[in-house]
Backbone:
C-alpha cells in the first residue's frame, strides 16, 4: 500500500474518532497491533533462505512483519517509494539483507529514520566479505547495525530486542528465549560429564 493510500484508508477514520467512541478505540488498537512493526527487505530472492531465518525468529516472538524483495540497484524508484513509506506504515525497524555491492541496507538507513539492521549475504566469489564491508562501513551519521555474514536469526533477535525497549511483554519473551539458550548449553555440559568426550563425539 502506498503512503497516500494508507492515509486515505486510515487517516480519515482517525479524524472521525470522537464520534465513534470506545468501539473505535478498540478497533484502532486491534488494527495497530496487526500492523507490521518490522519491514524485512532483501535485494533478491536468492537471499531468501537467510532472510527466512529472521522471519522465523519474529514469528517465534509474535512480532508482525512485512517481507518483500526490492533492489535499490535494479529498481531505485520502487525502492525509494518503499523506504520513504515505511515509517508511515508503522514500521519501527527494518531488516535489510543483500549481497555483493550491498547498498540496499545503507540506502534504507539513509531514508528511514529508525533502526536498520543489515544482513550481509555470503557470496560465491568473495565469501560475503564484499557484502559485509559494503554494509558495515557506513559513513558517519548513517549507521546500519550489521550482523554476521548470513546472520538472519541474529537480525531477528536484534529487532525483537529493539522493540522490547518499549514493550514489557515482548521483553519477557526475549528474556525467556535467552534462558532457553542457557538451558541448552547446561544440558550439553551435563551430557559431556556423563558420557565423556569420545562418546559425545561419536553421537554427534
Ligand atoms: P541475484 O541472485 O538476483 O543475481 O542477486 C542481492 O541481494 C543478491 O545477494 C545477487 C545479489 O545481488 C544483491 N543485490 C543487491 C542489491 N540488489 C540486489 N546488493 C542492492 O540494491 O543493494
Residues:
Amino acid at each position: 500500500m502506498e503512503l497516500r493510500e494508507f492515509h486515505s484508508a486510515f487517516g480519515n477514520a482517525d479524524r472521525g474518532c470522537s464520534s465513534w467512541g470506545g468501539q473505535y478505540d478498540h478497533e484502532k488498537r486491534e488494527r495497530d497491533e496487526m500492523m507490521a512493526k518490522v519491514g524485512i527487505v532483501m535485494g533478491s530472492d536468492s537471499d531468501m533462505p537467510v532472510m527466512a531465518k529472521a522471519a522465523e525468529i519474529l514469528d517465534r516472538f509474535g512480532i508482525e512483519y512485512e517481507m518483500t524483495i526490492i533492489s535499490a540497484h535494479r529498481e531505485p524508484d520502487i525502492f525509494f517509494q518503499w523506504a520513504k513509506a515505511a515509517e508511515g506504515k508503522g514500521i519501527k525497524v527494518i531488516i535489510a539483507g543483500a549481497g555483493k555491492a550491498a547498498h540496499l541496507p545503507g540506502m534504507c538507513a539513509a531514508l528511514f529514520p529508525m533502526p536498520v539492521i543489515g544482513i550481509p549475504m555470503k557470496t560465491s566469489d568473495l565469501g560475503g566479505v564484499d557484502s559485509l564491508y559494503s554494509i558495515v562501513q557506513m559513513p558517519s551519521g548513517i549507521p546500519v547495525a550489521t550482523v554476521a555474514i548470513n546472520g538472519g536469526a541474529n537480525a531477528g533477535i536484534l529487532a525483537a530486542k529493539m522493540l522490547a525497549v518499549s514493550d514489557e511483554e515482548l521483553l519477557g519473551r526475549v528474556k525467556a528465549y535467552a534462558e532457553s539458550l542457557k538451558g541448552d548449553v547446561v544440558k550439553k555440559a551435563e551430557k559431556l560429564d556423563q558420557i565423556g568426550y569420545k562418546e559425545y563425539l561419536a553421537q554427534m
